[in-house]
Amino acid sequence: QFQVAESGGGLVQPGGSLxxxxxxxxxxxxxxxxxxFRQAPGKEREGVSxxxxxxxxxxxxxxVKGRFTISRDYAKKTxxxxxxxxxxxxxxxxYCAATRYSNSYCEVRPDTxxxxxxxxxxxxxx
Length: 126
Known about the structure:
By secondary structure, the protein is mainly β. It is 0% helix and 48% strand.
């Protein structure tokens, strides 16, 4: 069974950093694109970033460009999201998701992903 689990959330002050990790079990990660999504209270889930199966292609939503970096470790079967210069508007539950994509392709559209984690809370507040 394909399982996805996030970790690394927490409370951080504005301008601070957090590193989220997404662990995938049971299947090799090589054929799966992975995306990070977030949902703030009262808002719809939105795409944040994604990385293609071969790791050559990444996408970011405009609001996080230059601040967030997505990366993957095939040996550890993990995908990380390094978040720097955090802002209060980055607050929300962050989800990791995976789906089969062609090698150099990914999207930040939630409806294209099949396997989801339970989410991890990120709160940016002074």
